[in-house]
Amino acid sequence: MQIYLYIGLGGAIGSCLRYLVTLMTTKLFGTLFPLGTICVNLIGAFLLGWFTNATFFKRLDSKYIAAINTGIIGSFTTLSTLSIDATTLIHQGQFLEAAFYCGISIIGGFLMAFLGLRLGIKEGKS
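Structure (tokenized):
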């Protein structure tokens, strides 16, 4: 039962961080393009990939791993927002922007996860 509290606390932290990133990117770059969602998804993909293979992370108690992976990173990133942002761009007739947004999000997410995995492996060998 205790693990659910850790995940819930992590979820609250991740949600607040996500909102903060969205506010910052909107303030800096405006609302014409959903840059905040791209940022959180790429950062989250990298962190999840890195933590998956990082030696220090594997040594943590399982409740802390769940709090970080499922709680913080899981609530920090989102597929539902990516989907609604892409649909909104398409509805506004911004087809090229929607394709770019989906491409960056998906390909960038894979690349960031791969980079994170590689960094975690490298860290474990030192």
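The CA atoms of residues 22 and 108 lie 18 Å apart. Helices lie at 2-29, 35-53, 55-58, 62-76, 79-91, 95-125.
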